[in-house]
Amino acid sequence: MLKKNANSLKELMGNLAFGGKMNNIPVSNEKTNPSSLQTDNRKKAIMLIILFGVVSLMGDIIYEGARGVYGPYTKSIGMDIALVGIITGVAEFLGYFVRLITGYLSDKTKGYWVFTIVGYFMLVSVPLLAISKQWQIVSLFIILERVGKAVRSPAKDTILSSATKQIGTGLGFAIHEALDQFGAIIGPLIFSAALYYSSKNSASGPAYSNAFTLMWIPFFLLIITVFAARIKVPHPENLEIQVSTIPEKLTKTFWLYNAFSITTTIGFISFVIIGYYFKDNNLLNDAQIPLLYSVAMGIDGAAALVVGKVYDNLKKRFNNERSGLRTLIVIPVLTSLIPFLAFTKNKVLLILSVLLWGIVMGTHETIMKSSIADLTHIKKRGTAYGIFNTGYGLALLISSSLIGLLYKVNIVYIYILVIVTQIISIIFYFTLVKSTGDRKNYDNRKSKV
């Protein structure tokens, strides 16, 4: 009886905090131990974060592995390079633009789990690449994989953000990112091994269909895990039981944060450009470049854990949920150094540039997602993630296109672009930090002591 009433109280508190309907939940006159309720929520939150980490790990094995061979695979079935560029460009654009729509709809319908599960189901397009070599079908599957990510991302991040509130948004997203990057390392290695084995044992060359067929294994494991997460924690919003002081309307700080993110990302050089430079100048061979990328992914995961913890510590120090934004200064500072280290002939500096690139990526993936959770009300969080991800995606598109063009003209122009964008982003950074008011809170607290 007591356990039943405790669960009822927990659901009631969760719904009140979430702003949803009461749903005829019975109210008991018996008292529930608040510390026991908090402990139970914390356990559920940790379990949900780990389950989602495993889901992302499996997802990255599937799509990061596949994305690494899209180029040679499309060439092997006779697709023209221009057509491949158009298809992948459309896929990437939809992968970010659709998030505006799905983010809004997930908030409107509160169907966060529905969007998450449907989006992950769309990963079936990768193993299905094994059944056809017609360019129209292959193109459709490539586009569906990216659209699936757009369908699930805002809703998944919203669910995850509620769980991270129990242990710290920085640390929660960092744990998720570390597991995610582990999959990003394993995926390409599985494809490499499968293609190497098939080419060694076949006169006709590598059998891509065998590699894609292997992806059924992580796909089924992913689906089982995401359903397990849904069964274990059907109402993740109940984990965020604190009454939010953040207004439902998207604030000035949120828009400043987006301005910072877009400007600093425009000056961030993609690994595709860096790898192209290595190959173009015969600095590393074809086997060394993807190996170095795997190292960068490992650094990404490790950096996420460190930066995530620092993010949470700053929130505690300044007694302000938004004070973790101070860690964002790492991004423009390190981003400014990357081109000067990468576009050289010194192999030590090349490797250092890739390590810095991994740290910046880890900060992007951890702090940028954590910040949205701390800047927005739960009712608008799906929409906020949709807006942020769309802006971030457009910035990546501008960055890759512009830096690619400048590379053909003169690398010096890339240096100028990076420095200018990072200076502008630093201006946005200081305006952003000032808007949080954390310094004032800190000074007031010290004066009381």
What are the main properties of this structure?
Growth Hormone, Chain: A; globular; mainly alpha; 2 domains; single chain
The end-to-end distance, rounded to whole angstroms, is 46 Å
Low-confidence stretches: 1-31
Coarse morphology = globular
The CATH homology group name of the largest domain: MFS general substrate transporter like domains
Rounded mean pLDDT score: 84
Helix content bin: over 70%
Overall strand count: 0
- The Cα radius of gyration reads 23 Å
Please give the largest β-sheet.
none
Structural class, judged by helices and strands? Answer: mainly alpha
Short characterization:
77% of the residues lie in helices and 0% in strands.
Give a topology summary.
Layout: H1 2-18, H2 34-67, H3 70-76, H4 81-109, H5 112-121, H6 135-164, H7 169-200, H8 208-214, H9 216-232, H10 252-266, H11 271-280, H12 288-318, H13 330-342, H14 347-375, H15 381-409, H16 411-436, H17 438-448
Helix pairs in contact: 2-6, 2-7, 2-9, 4-6, 4-15, 5-6, 5-9, 6-7, 6-15, 7-8, 7-12, 7-14, 10-15, 10-16, 12-14, 13-14, 13-16, 15-16
